[in-house]
Amino acid sequence: MTSAHSQTRPPAVCLVSGGMDSAVTLAEAVHAGFCAHALSFDYGQRHAHELDCARRVANAGGAAEHRIVTLDLSVFGGSALTTDEEVPKDRDEQEIGTGVPATYVPARNTVFLSVALAWAEVLGAKDLFIGVNAVDYSGYPDCRPEFLAAFEELAGKATAAGTERGERFRVHAPLMEFSKQQVVERAIELDVDLALTHTCYDPVERDGAVLACGHCDACLLRLKGFEQAGRVDPIEYAR
Amino acid sequence: MTSAHSQTRPPAVCLVSGGMDSAVTLAEAVHAGFCAHALSFDYGQRHAHELDCARRVANAGGAAEHRIVTLDLSVFGGSALTTDEEVPKDRDEQEIGTGVPATYVPARNTVFLSVALAWAEVLGAKDLFIGVNAVDYSGYPDCRPEFLAAFEELAGKATAAGTERGERFRVHAPLMEFSKQQVVERAIELDVDLALTHTCYDPVERDGAVLACGHCDACLLRLKGFEQAGRVDPIEYAR
């Protein structure tokens, strides 16, 4: 790809958490021909390791740039991911799929997409990418297509681009209908290095390395995805 | 008001910038019988004075508590309020009212309301208060009723309260149709101490005090509001 070509690619803002889904979503944005601007949040999550993974995923995934916005939602409490509440372990699939999980961060995707929209306005971008997935995470209200459609509607009314120039924003969620197995398979197709990604809600530090617990909902879903895809997960587990 | 009574007041999240509009909005929330939780942002604005005013306004205005969320939008650039770009001075009314102002912060109210929604979820609140005003700031797309209606719609789809319990969120903008004159008059009716508030986009420090410039769009609109209300603005100006 020549640099002249790369300058003509339309800009898009892509939310990159450092997880497997957002790594594949970034790859989809680049594959679709966008100049991807990767955005991560330092939102009081318990593990800085997540942001290290986000940086590596953004670099390896061909993002044009990567910015980290500090936004400390832990001042409100309300979720196991940002407080000291215990992360649920070894739940069976039925438990994982039912109700709003204890690890739910209030209004998280609303907040993340809003900040992505702010950057999109500055960049002149009309496209946002987010790695949400309705299949594995049906308990999260802000991972559903109706939510994303409502956000697109809001974006048109919130911005100069929408109200003065009639431009439409689009929230792309290329993994929306994917199972974790399909995410793993798509990662392999798009040459995404899943060894760089991070999924665990409750990682363990051992001899300077950060290992996934292998027991939280996120680890269980990830491991099942690899198993069903007939692949071995390249990250290290503590169990 | 007894403390038993105060415990039965429904919670509301109220955005408090430290400005005149948000001070009156907080007073409206308390006046309407809500237990007001005041929310401010440290968003890379150039003047910490703004946050000092927000603290004083929240305390004096009867907020149950006040929290400040760090959210540095200046990493994106794009506005005179968070960069070193020059603030426009001494513009006439027609210039102030036309187009999107140079001081526009991209998607600011979308971001602020999203974070307010996150706190509302934790508090179990369904009501958000914001001091936007369509009359004086017609250039800001995210100050219009259509924008607030779209946000209410989004909130219902973004939250467990909306999707699981069918509850409706409401974004209150009590000053939407007020002129600055009416804001000053309402402040006096509700006993709001406007001496605590801050409006200027480009304040001047002199002998340890922070003075309003008296020339930016915000100062000009504020001064005109006091003049039309036949009142003297209690804050100090540098001019």
Based on Cα principal axes, name the global outline of chain A.
globular
What is the assigned CATH homologous superfamily of chain A?
A: HUPs
How far is it from the N-terminal to the C-terminal residue of chain A, by CA? 43 Å
Q: The CATH topology of chain A, please?
A: Rossmann fold
Class of secondary structure makeup of chain A: alpha/beta
* CATH second-level architecture of chain A: 3-Layer(aba) Sandwich
Order of H and E elements of chain A: HEHEHEHHEHHEHEEH
CATH first level of chain A:
Alpha Beta
Beta-strand content bin of chain A: 5-15%
Overall description:
The structure is a homodimer of 239-residue chains. The first copy, chain A, has helices spanning 3-8, 20-31, 49-60, 93-97, 108-123, 145-158, 160-165, 180-189, 217-229; strands at residues 11-15, 35-42, 65-70, 127-129, 170-172, 204-206, 209-211. Chain A is α/β, with parallel strands linked by helices. Chain A has a single domain (3-193), classed as 3-Layer(aba) Sandwich (Rossmann fold), CATH 3.40.50. In chain A, strands 3-2-1-4-5 form a five-stranded parallel beta sheet, sandwiched between helices. In chain A, strands 6-7 form a two-stranded antiparallel ribbon. The longest helix of chain A is centred in the middle third of the chain and has 16 residues, at 108-123. Chains A and B meet through strand 3, helix 5, helix 6 and helix 7 of A and strand 3, helix 5, helix 6 and helix 7 of B.
Give the secondary structure arrangement, pairings included.
The structure is a homodimer of 239-residue chains.
Chain A: H1 3-8, E1 11-15, H2 20-31, E2 35-42, H3 49-60, E3 65-70, H4 93-97, H5 108-123, E4 127-129, H6 145-158, H7 160-165, E5 170-172, H8 180-189, E6 204-206, E7 209-211, H9 217-229
Parallel strand pairs in A: 1-2, 1-4, 2-3, 4-5
Antiparallel strand pairs in A: 6-7
